[in-house]
Amino acid sequence: MANQGPAYYSPYPAATYEGVITPPEGKALLLSDVVDEEVAMREIAKVMLTKENATIFPGPQVLYGFNEEAKKKATLIKEMAEVLNAKMIPMYDYRPKYPKIDAEVEINPNHPNLTIWHNNIKAAIFIGVHCHYANVALKIVRSETDCYTIAICGLSGHEDAMATLRDQHSSELEKFIKIAKEVKAELGK
Amino acid sequence: MSTIKDMTKTHNWSGQKLVTADHMLFDAPREKHFMTGSEVLKEAVKRCTVDASVSYPITPQSEAAHLIGELWAEGYVGTYFRGENEFGVMSEVAGCAMAGARTITTTSGPGTLRAMENFPQWSGTRIPCQLVLMARGINSPLTIQPDNLEVTFMLETGCQIWYAENVQELFDMSIAAFVVAEKPDVHVPIVTVCDGFFVSHTRESVMLPADDIALFPYEPYKSPLPPIDSETPPGRFLRDPFVMKSNYISYATHASWQFEVRSAVERSRPYAKHFLNGLVHVTGDADAEIAFVTCGTASNQAKEAQRDLAKQGVKSKVIKLRTIRPFPTEELLAELDGVKHIFIPEFNVVGWLEKEVKEALYKKHDAEIVGGPRVAGGMSLPSEAILKEVFEHINVEGA
Question: Which of A16, A55, B159, B163 is 20 to 30 Å from B38 by CA-CA measure?
Fold first, then answer.
């Protein structure tokens, strides 16, 4: 089992109970600080490139090609994984798994800690996960693991992640990949 | 019958020009009308591009539900139907909203309790529907007069709760309510409360924008859960009967889910602040040592008392709470700076607002808190009763 995070076993206190809410438009969130998007992107790239077993968790919104934007995002996420030297473990289904998930290859919002524990993941990006399920999962991860969580969100962001970017569409993902390449070169990774 | 046409990028199905909520609420020119709360709710719904409304329009509730039905007949509301009872209504509202429809209903007192199981289910499924609650107490004995006892039952349902003082506020709030409830990071139901009879049945002056404009439609694909849509892939994996799978999930999931619903209500604060011009409104003397903390029509009566006290040379102020969920603790504390005596007049016998205020101020403010006066079951709350309460508790100079 990984070390316990700041909130221990219970998902309480959730970030909103500590006065932290989603960042305003045009901004990002690093822990409880509202920062410029580019500042957050650099920090996210640095964390992903330096933490153990960094992993991207793509959700249904980028796993299924139901529109052109989803297809474009999916291609960019593959490129992002290569740049960040990250693994990918999909969250393709939100339904609880019976009798149990295969923590090696999948993650589920109802018990995301199992996958993080099993793979000893110390940094993770949630992307393409519907906001409610991302929030449910992030609260559990925050309370039960020491994984640094990052939410790259197409809507308003997620305050229970340790870093969150909001309004992220394919153009913003291209910008993030460019910054990640710069950070990677700086770190000599 | 409905005259519904196709929606375009600029106009809705009834031919109204689509506008933002900011334009509708702050910029559009307004004209004076003279209307009841029920009538004004019809006018609000008319301007909201509402997809669906379900009702159980019993007597002696308000006329609001049947007036929304008239809007369907006039082609302003997408669909409208009657449930078999309030439980059915609230369940059907959930179905409409899960399918991606902007949905509204209205009820009061006993009907609210009959439908009770649905409200936490609404918030748990993150639907952004609106319930207009025209409070009139709980049976028995029957009351059709103002009494807001049912609000205490709604407090922990995970819904947002806003409280309108008068007909004007009911109009503006019920439009803003849709917009805030539909924000992707909020996306929980909203209960817009007003006091029955005093607001629902009483005609007042109200300023309304023209009825040829309406809100942009709800965009369900920005929902934190995908709407029911069997043809769009992520939708297939949602709306699984989560509750029925409780044996297969961790307890942490359920706990996290509940905190997430309450977190969503917290995230509504900045949006509510914007559309309501603040979560509290203050009338009277800024440096007063006497404050009335109120919501709904008790605010009106407290303002009357504040004016009477001013005539006697006694400074006081009324702090009207516009939202109950989220509870505006920070704003209330700021307005209570320097206050030594707090009075909480209410239209119910249990004093739910007093309990809310005491919980919020515990160890944060040392003013004496007096829960009263309280009236119920349709009694009026004359300013004299409020003054009597003040004079019984404190010796005010100049009184």
Answer: B159
- For residue A7, tell me if it sits in a domain: no
CB contact under 8 A, A110 and B250: yes
Query: CB A66 to CB B263 under 8 A?
Result: no
The pLDDT assigned to A96 comes to: 78
**Mean pLDDT in residue range B78-95:** 94
**CB-CB neighbors (< 8 A) of B238 in chain A:** 94, 130
- Between B103-107, B155-159, B212-216, B249-253, the lowest mean confidence (pLDDT) is in B249-253
| Least CB–CB distance from A64: residue in B233, B240, B267 | B233
Name the 3-class secondary structure at B198: coil
Would you call A140 and B126 a contact, using CB atoms and an 8 Å cutoff? no
CB contact under 8 A, B253 and A111: yes
Cβ atoms within 10 A of the Cβ of A59, count?
A: 24
Radius of gyration of chain B (CA): 21
Counting the structural domains of chain B, the total is 2
Structural domain for B354, as ranges: 280-393
Min Cα–Cα distance to chain A from B11, Å: 25
Number of domains in chain A: 1
**Distance between CA atoms of residues B355 and B364, nearest Å:** 15
Positive or negative: CA dihedral B378, B384, B385, B386: positive
Full DSSP string of B202-216: --EEEEEE-TTEEEP
DSSP A49: H
8 Å CB contact between B140 and B114: no
Tell me the per-residue pLDDT of B361-382, one tens digit each, with 9 for 90 and over: 999 999 999 999 999 988 899 9
Predicted model pTM: 0.95
Q: Please judge whether B255 and A131 are an interchain contact, meaning their C-beta atoms are less than 8 angstroms apart.
A: no
Q: The complex's ipTM?
A: 0.93
A167 CA: distance to closest CA in chain B (Å): 11
Structural domain includes residue A13: no
Residues in chain B: 399
